[in-house]
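hey so i finally got around to running the thing on that chain from the lab meeting. sorry it took forever, my laptop kept dying and i had to restart like 3 times. anyway pasting the input first so we r on the same page abt which one it is
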Amino acid sequence: MDAFTHLLDGFGTALTPAHLAFAAIGVILGTAIGVLPGIGPAMAVALLLPVTYGLDSTAAFIMFAGIYYGGMFGGSTTSILLNTPGESAAVVTAIEGNPMARSGRGPQALAAAAIGHFVGGMVGTTALVLLAPAVASVAVDIGAPDYFAIMVLAFVAVTSVLGASRLRGLASLLLGLTLGLVGLDQMTGQSRLTFGTLHLSDGIDVVLVAVGLFAVGEALWVAAHLRHGGSSPIPVGRPWLSRDDLRRTWKPWLRGPLIGFPFGAVPAGGAEIPTFLSYATEKRLSKHRDEFGKGAIEGVAGPESTASASAAGTMVTMLTLGLPTTAVAAVMLAAFQQYGIQPGPLLFQRETDLVWGLIASLFVGTVLLLLINLPLAPVWAKLLRIPRPYLYGGILFFASVGAYAVGGDPVDLVVLLLIGLLGFAMRRFGLPVLPAILGVILGPGAELQMRRALQLSDGSLTGLVNSPLAVAVYAVVAVLLAWPLARRLVRAARR
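ok and heres what got predicted. didnt touch it at all, straight out
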């Protein structure tokens, strides 16, 4: 009951006119910045950090929370309409959202994303109130073997459900893992695949890979086929969700938080792994599997709800342990320290008003996000009426601006073009794009956790399976790998 009493006090803080205004400003700024490829919510919070020097800490963090949620939704908007993820958590949304938009169902995809964010945010923030201490205590006990097992599960789950064949999915994953190796070895400092170029010593930024493979690769692919298909605008279609759409989306909306919140609360988690797993889960459970890859609305609703709940989960370890699990959480941790506040087990006792005001503002920001963006779905979708040569020319321009903004180095533009050509080649030969991006995002982390686990066991492979959680995850991996073969054997026996 203490939690609910504090939460009511938090609503009293968050619902003051001034704090409501800061929450609305944060949501609008976050959505606007999230729409720009490469400039995600983390960069938005970092850019606005100096602006808040004159604000009190509660107002500043309420605005930061609005920027976080708004940035995630803005990233999904460009994923759906332009096949250009604004940030890494929105990568999965492009797989089904963009085919929906191209077939005239852009408003439905945007509405499914907005409602998914609302449901995931509300459920995730409620879980934050109820489960923060318990989840934090469990998260502390998760070790390197468990992290590696979870990442292997993400690799297997995504490569097994995407593309025309598992072999092509695996080939795409290997390309991504290779790109993830570029740079300095995190443990020895040895340079790998840098070809003697100092610029590549820090590796290739995930934003460059995502924007290059999705946006630039798609633009080049469309340009190569415009002369065959003409350049007529993409239809916008009618707004709002039909009964059939609601029937297909309500279960993914509710399943998303079950996947997203625990992963968000795990240190070094984030929204990437759970959104990939959510997509794989929805494809397995859907009665419309033949639509996946062509515009299945479940593939938008599930990952978006998952990403929003994961955002709430990241607040658990950031507030209770002082461990940032995402780039945004790391910037917010720096903001706490700027105000002389140290997140950790004693934060809820020392800064009660601030913490519960922040948690209440997450509820307020989620509602504002829905109220602002749901009516705007048809307006956003009208971007698709722009003739395709101008539309994809604009995409290339904003993709280049976003890539340059990541590091401020012109060499990034060359890297972007090369990765875009790779994306074009992958489309030409039927390789799915998502496993490659998954490999870039999770590959370095998987390698680091595997080597840590092997170091702890003096090089013994048993060090990878020395915890109950790791064994359970590998059992799920074995089922995923054996299921197609078992299904074929059962069908053959029935014949």
